[in-house]
């Protein structure tokens, strides 16, 4: 299959491991990625917290650019995904707003392409059986908890993600690659998001709570599909509380034995390599 | 004259806040209540009571993380997350921003975007530190991130910056 690809700002910086592993996994699963031409930032929390029209227009600019390729657009970053789905929701529901935003962006919005996150594409289009067949090195001994966070799921009528109070797609993907995924009650809790910089102590507290819960569930790592959750969970928990955190695509890449799969572990702030070495996975 | 409640309802452009029957489902699920001055359902009550100054001066509206758990669980589909956005925007206009650094972070983020179309994280952090005066927090972490190649000093920008700046210009609020 072929899709447009919107990496977003994080995947070119703090979330580069997600971009690298996403590209490697896509190649191996025969998903061709065509980057959206001349994309700009989605505006993230800062736009919608301060100016509604700005937040919709910034996402609309990118959606219009993606529409030129006439393919579904894959949006790995949960924050960008949420902003695009929100803009789509409002633009389709409110004709007056659509006309106003088209005036601001200077281009017509068609709304003809689907905005999709890679969990959905890998689970629904590739399928866990096909994925399992490509595994050369099952991740035996790895005990992740799946952490979905907020922005992939909520609000449900906007995000249209499966089973939003107890999602399972990432859990099934982890099972398919041989990990012993643990159940827990914190799949959809918040990591503290954009308050990490301005209200750091609160976010440390929230991340500590998540790490405690992961340990209670007998997990030895956390798996995520959001660069903001990754940044917070990788950097913010107190010393002694931390567990390795992975993007789900890094683990797929490792289980498929893809070239360069070990490279992305080097740039994690909390080094996951001791755990992977101990388990004989690298 | 428009009441505070009418004003907020109009801006949310969804289910009116009068639908809230204060079951506190929002408050029960909110991850930030322990850091909030007023619980989410209390904010609705205060708006219903017309306590404009108290609401727009509160830190609560800046503590909301927009995790949207409240709207997901509200039995009456009251969009509390949008309400918080609306209240923040009104507080900015009103000049009563209780959590100045939260707004300074948002401003630094948007300034970075206006400059390059995409966020360059080191530049955004420098902006934020200059605005907030919080120079030393995260300095060691920043160094570690830099060493690990997570912070690129130069990163690709959007080419058609005119279209991005145009969006900022045309959505500017008076």
Summarize the structure.
The complex is a heterodimer of chains A (282) and B (174). Chain A contains 14 helices and seven strands.
Assembly type = heterodimer
Taken from the alpha-carbon principal axes, the silhouette of chain B is: globular
Total count of domains of chain A? 2
Question: What level of helicity do the residues of chain A show?
Answer: 40-55%
Determine the mean pLDDT of chain A. Answer: 97
- State the CATH topology of the largest domain in chain B: Fumarate Reductase Iron-sulfur Protein, Chain B, domain 2
Write down how many β-strands of chain A occur, each being a DSSP E stretch of 2 or more residues: 7
| DSSP summary: helix tally of chain A | 14
Helical content band of chain B: 55-70%
Head-to-tail CA distance between termini of chain B: 21 Å
CATH class of the largest domain in chain A: Alpha Beta
Uncertain regions of chain A: pLDDT < 50 for 5+ in a row? none
Q: Major sheet of chain B: size, sense and barrel closure?
A: none
Quickly give the CATH architecture of the largest domain in chain A.
3-Layer(aba) Sandwich
Which overall shape of chain A is indicated by the principal axes computed on the Cα atoms? globular
CATH class of the largest domain in chain B reads Mainly Alpha
Strand content of chain A: 5-15%
CATH third-level topology of the largest domain in chain A: Rossmann fold
Structural class of chain A: alpha/beta
**Which segments of chain B are poorly predicted (pLDDT under 50) over 5 or more consecutive residues?**
none
Features:
heterodimer; A: 282 residues; alpha/beta; Glutathione S-transferase Yfyf (Class Pi), Chain A, domain 2; Rossmann fold; four-stranded parallel beta sheet; three-stranded parallel beta sheet; 14 helices; 7 strands; 48% helix; B: 174 residues; mainly alpha; Fumarate Reductase Iron-sulfur Protein, Chain B, domain 2; 0% strand
